[in-house]
Design a protein that fits this description.
2 copies of one chain form a homodimer. Chain A is of the alpha/beta class and 402 residues long. In chain A, 35% of the residues lie in helices and 25% in strands. In chain A, strand 11 and strand 12 form a beta hairpin. Chains A, B: Its EC number is 2.7.2.4. Chains A, B: Catalyzes the phosphorylation of the beta-carboxyl group of aspartic acid with ATP to yield 4-phospho-L-aspartate, which is involved in the branched biosynthetic pathway leading to the biosynthesis of amino acids threonine, isoleucine and methionine. Chains A, B: Keywords: Amino-acid biosynthesis, ATP-binding, Diaminopimelate biosynthesis, Kinase, Lysine biosynthesis, Nucleotide-binding, Transferase.
Chain lengths: 402, 402
């Protein structure tokens, strides 16, 4: 008998019918003899609808009040799944974040889990119950309801698996696992049977939406065995773990709506640490800077551009730049799993292919095991499909080429 | 500076615009220098919608899970009002039932408040904040979310006023106060400026929906000064309190969809205590029995008829009746505030008037300060309007007649 944490996302519990399907799946695992903790997101677009309601009242509602509001979404899901499970003849108990003992810091809207007081969960498990827990939410030490930010239910699930010492943390989602590229964009994308924490983290940070980066960090630091799989099929998913041999290139991630900011001026390169800490303090950590002797450029999510541009103008003197250039409309394409010795070869391949396709590369950045470059958004599909093929990801047998 | 509890019902917070109106009203009281605790119901039909969602999953969902589900309704209201108040420049803190320290027993769906641990509320009040509390809900001693049943927000408000020693508990609703009859039915109904706890309790129990009986009981036992008033106007409301001189007849209440159950058989009268305790044990307390030498009859809400009929059949031997008669479709009309010495005169007036109107009276019951009688539902409007006029309630000056 294993203890398994199963997490179902918003699409998986999007309707009453889907909640019934989740109940059936949970029941199967139960009948296979496992102890189960089930973590749920809010139903489908519930969170967005609640946010919309708030916006009608206030343009900038207090984050504390937002947490009070949106945390109702998961509370509805867990109550309904509990009913569906009782209907299936399974004894289940729904617990909100605070009832489950999920203690966070007080950063409303982006809280981090500090600890999980698992006594209540363990007591119910010992009584043979399936414990259903509201993801995405917790309580701070003053008793205020907090939320972990978007994607936070993944983090709840992994943190619960870590605290409970679960053998497995299954993340059920609307895709069948982690792919070598976004299958909606690249029809030849291959599902990975396994991926290392580091490569998963890279993919997650670089735009692959399947897991939230914070959840991957939590999994890595506690060695939680995560499986990403579909809630709509019985297909085997992708194992995320420590001892995964590097398979050469792991995949291609991409992030849309990227802007590139460039500061120009003599000696600007030396101001990188100042700029980096300015951005950090503003809550916008940037790790990838590209610089020449008289320029310094970095990518940003487009929706952060306005805030950053204002920040840079305010600190013009301190940063000592002559000119500020902002340009939007890019997609950042990242190749993940590039080993040190093959990096030059992969980069050459990318440059050559983009040239053949007449796709200008605006910005390139190389770091440990990954290569990122920015191209115009409308060229992304062609570029990614071509690279996916040429880097040997369409069929794994060609992988040895790199 | 007074401490005031203000409660706003579902209609008063039914839309974002109405929530804004409530915020303005609360702000006015704040600017008048009062400390404020604001208790809210769920927005409009939210609770019904959540119940509907549950019914799609399970015909008889667990009450514990229902409480988890429907308690989200008030949580949404309090979050939105907090935002609206911040928008108005008022500092406010929303608290769920459990955060507000409302401790109940564990009877899910119909919980009773055992105590209120007011430290957290008092701390926020001392910091100058308006404290917004989710009505209708609490937490039991095991940390499970409970609800108080329909109308429970009134009870939350009155219990909070009692625990906090508030000077006033204002119940804002969609009518301007307590009337001598339902103004939707009787256009000449008069608003009462004051009413005693006992008469209010009678009206509430006998069908006047303006206050929940349990909240009136709580107000009476703690001497809470309650005012019922409109959330849509500045009209003065109705004061509910201890030292209200009995004004003669207070008003006419009516309850629709009433069934009359009659047991026939020799000596059946002597079985009243047995019957009474059977019904009590089944959670259907009946206080008004009418009996003759060979019959025993009592009224019921129509939706309880099936359950009670089954119970009576099961216990036929013990009850020793020969025949069981059930008849639905009645409206119970009750005249409240009938003094002992005028009871006979009022009853005679009722009987006479109904006879003139050709409205058969099916069942009559007289008790301390009230007279109730059942008539066919389709005759109720005519009967109540006529009695309202003839008993002098259309204009208070004629009141002295009784």
């Amino acid at each position: 008998m294993a203890l398994i944490v199963q997490k179902f996302g918003g699409t998986s519990v999007g309707t009453v019918d889907r909640i019934r399907e989740v109940a059936k799946r949970v029941k199967e695992s139960r009948e296979a003899g496992h102890q189960l903790v089930v973590v749920l997101s809010a139903m489908g677009k519930t969170t967005d609808a609640l946010v919309q309601l708030a916006k009608e009242i206030s343009e900038h509602p207090d984050e504390r009040d937002m947490d009070m509001l949106v945390s109702t979404g998961e509370q509805v899901s867990i109550a309904l799944l509990a009913m569906a499970l009782q209907q299936e003849g399974c004894e289940a108990i729904p617990l909100t974040g605070w009832q489950a003992g999920i203690v966070t810091d007080s950063v409303h809207g982006e809280a981090r889990i500090k600890q999980i007081e698992t006594q209540r969960i363990r007591r119910h498990l010992a009584q043979g119950k399936i414990v259903i827990i509201a993801g995405f939410q917790g309580m701070d030490e003053q008793g205020a309801i907090t939320t972990l930010g978007r994607g936070g239910s993944d983090t709840s699930a992994v943190a619960l698996a870590a605290s409970l010492g679960a053998q497995l943390c299954e993340i059920y989602t609307d895709v069948a696992g982690v792919f070598t590229a976004d299958p909606r964009l690249v029809p030849t994308a291959q599902k990975l049977s396994a991926i290392s924490y580091q490569d998963m983290l890279d993919l997650a940070e670089l735009g692959a939406g399947v897991l939230h980066p914070r959840s991957v960090e939590t999994a890595r630091s506690h060695g939680v065995h995560v499986v990403v799989r579909s809630s709509f099929s019985n297909e085997e998913g992708t194992n995320v773990g420590r001892d995964v041999p590097a398979p050469g290139i792991t995949g291609i991630a991409h992030g849309e709506h990227v802007a590139i900011v460039t500061l120009k001026g003599e000696g600007i390169r030396s101001r990188t640490p100042v700029l980096s800490s300015l951005l950090q303090d503003a809550g916008i950590p940037v790790s990838a800077f590209v610089h020449g002797s008289s320029f310094l450029s970095f990518p940003l999510a487009k929706n952060q551009l306005q805030k950053v541009a204002a920040l840079l103008r305010e600190n013009r003197e301190q940063l000592g730049y002559r000119e500020l250039e902002e340009e939007g409309g890019f997609t950042m394409v990242s190749v993940v799993g590039v080993s040190r010795h093959s990096a030059a070869k992969v980069l050459k391949e990318i440059m050559g292919r983009m040239k053949l396709l007449h796709i200008p590369i605006r910005w390139v950045h190389q770091s440990e095991r990954r290569l990122s470059f920015a191209i115009r958004g409308n060229k992304a599909e062609t570029a990614i499909r071509t690279l996916h093929r040429e880097l040997g990801l369409d069929g794994r047998e060609e992988l040895a080429a790199f």
